[in-house]
Amino acid sequence: MPRHRIQLINPNTSQAMTDTMAITARHIAGDRLDIDAVCPHQGVPSIEGHFDEAVATLGILQQIRAGEARGVQGHIIACFGDPGLLAARELAKGPVIGIAEAAMHVATLVATRFSIVTTLPRTVIIARHLLHRYGFYEQCAAIHAIDLPVLSLEDGSGTAQQKVRDYCLKAKQEDNVGAIILGCGGMADLAAELSETLEIPVIDGVSAAVTLLESLLNLGITTSKWGDLDFPRNKGISGPFAECLA
Fold first, then answer.
1. For position 121, which CATH number holds?
2. Helix then strand then coil, % of the chain, to nearest 5
3. Per the UniProt record, which residue ranges are transmembrane (predicted)?
4. What is the tens place of the pLDDT at every residue in 8-26?
């Protein structure tokens, strides 16, 4: 089996969070994949709403184009809102996986119902939108917010991580679910510990996305270019957007 090269795109500008997710991704990939972990140099330091997602999308598309120029064969959008996912699928030659969609698919393979533990309460609404879009709304029992910002996961205090543990335990005890999804890429390094402690599958989207992307590459399958996900038409776009089509 050929060794594939993929890239993990952190859509925010936090190098520390990029590094955290890269460790998880490379552990799951082992020696089967080469993984470039990248983030944009400009944009938002964290993604916690629709505005942030809109700003981050341009950086994602620039990284898609830059990665394919380096020979990358597939891409992961490592933010639980899956920002710019369909636009990225239009632009990319290789498959593109969002970590929220990946985590939801994997959860439904191992449990009939799951809960999500995320960061801020406003992101609960975004997660609900994704559940509807992906067709998993009925399988999700509850969405819990630890009520701390994304970057609290990188502040070194451990407070956010403990709240994630507490809410995962709450979900197991109260939601009557068989699996829990961690609703932020910055939580990726907690999944193995929590799965062992709680004795139910705790799924992080980074690991799920790496595994699904590897499977698509091994199968030789990429995004369909028949229909709405065909490559974007070059209409003489100006400004920084033009870089994406160059």
1. 3.40.50.12500
2. 50, 15, 35
3. none
4. 999 999 999 999 999 999 9
